[in-house]
Amino acid sequence: MDYTLHQRGRASVEFLVDLGIEAVRLEKTADEYAEAAGLTTVELPEDLDELQAKVTPVMQDCLDFRIFRVVREWQLDQHGLIAMDAFDEMRPDIETMIQALQEGPTRIQYAQNLKAPDYWDGYEFHRSAGGWGGHDCMGFVHGEIIHRKMVSNHLADVIMGQRRAAAKMPPVENPEKILDMGCGSAQYTQGLAEAFPDAEIWGCDLSSRQLEEAQRRANEKGLTWHLFEAAAEDTGLESNQFDLVTSYAIFHEFPSSVAREVLQETLRLLKPGGVTLMGDVKAYHAHDDYNRWKADFLNQIHGGDPFWREYATTDLATMATEAGFVEAEWFGVGDNQYPFVLIAKKPDERKTT
Ligand SMILES: C[S@@+](CC[C@H](N)C(=O)[O-])C[C@H]1O[C@@H](n2cnc3c(N)ncnc32)[C@H](O)[C@@H]1O
């Protein structure tokens, strides 16, 4: 979508991007401090609360770490507000275009009387002010201004690059029908559509505001996706119809009881022999002790994600096997082991009898 931020919004977004670059530099210096203090070589407690109690006071003695925290805190607090403000400032220029893109081959099926689950409703994940639906154009605000203008700018297209790579990974040939659960503003769905151009693409999310951005992205390219407002654990769709049921970056947003239900629903929706790939953030066991402390400190303790620790310490391969999948593997991708992906198959009884 072609648009230009206005003066105030552009200036604030650029300041936030510059601050992000500075935060990365400060984080590196803090890591060097941790190394010099022996935190990367000594064995640290396995228990996460004990780990926090041991490492945090040491790091608080590092000035760059304390400045890093101030900068990050301000970014977390402000980025959603700045993005919404930047949108409102240019709204008169782009409103017509936004409305026009809601017309086209991709439609949204809105849910009647959907009661948002407690673990989702009212949370500001990633500490984005407004959460997933707190602005009438939150999909654009999040998908365009936060993702593209703020995050991708200093993380060198990390957001789309990782999703495109994950979208090529499912071990499935020529799938006819794909469901992207928690598709949000379609950052990952776009990767799926590129990887499997002949497949029929379905996407669900609890946030209708995010689905509206997904709809605009599909319509902009003339694509026909089937978008619908629903919880991944209770889609209301008929059983045994998808070749691939997949998701990216949703499992860290719910408790493990819901992760189990999502996997059960996935199994139900897949055709026999169908495949699932669920990609998300790095599991704690793949970090060394110091980075495990840091991931937990930044995301669970001071981030906006109350279920991060629960996700990052739950073995999804075991959970998938217990749900009835076979050949389940949960592993980190590449040298960085990021993202972590669960790949598993629905048994095909026709083949074993
Ligand atoms: C971090 S975003 C990821 C969006 C998209 N998959 C991507 O890769 O950019 C998480 C999305 O999952 C959605 N979500 C969280 N829990 C969900 C659930 N139980 N069912 C459906 N959507 C859910 C949120 O509303 C949000 O849009």
Could you please describe the fold and organization of this structure?
The chain is built from twelve helices and eight strands. It has one domain (7-352): Vaccinia Virus protein VP39 (Rossmann fold). The chain has 353 residues and is of the alpha/beta class. S-adenosylmethionine (SAM) is lined by residues 120, 132, 163, 181-184, 187-188, 204-207, 210, 231-233, 248-250, 253-254.
Topology:
Elements: H1 7-36, H2 48-60, H3 63-100, E1 107-109, H4 138-154, H5 158-167, E2 177-181, H6 187-195, E3 200-205, H7 208-220, E4 225-229, E5 242-248, H8 256-269, E6 270-280, H9 289-301, H10 308-312, H11 316-323, E7 326-332, E8 340-345, H12 349-352
Parallel strand pairs: 1-4, 2-3, 2-5, 3-4, 5-6
Antiparallel strand pairs: 6-8, 7-8
Helix pairs in contact: 1-3, 1-4, 2-9, 3-4, 4-7, 5-6
The structure holds S-adenosylmethionine (SAM).
Order of helices and strands: HHHEHHEHEHEEHEHHHEEH
Strand order of the largest sheet: 1-4-3-2-5-6-8-7
Fraction of residues in helix: 40-55%
Report the total helices.
12
Q: Which radius of gyration do the C-alpha atoms yield?
A: 21 Å
In CATH terms, what is the fold-level topology? Rossmann fold
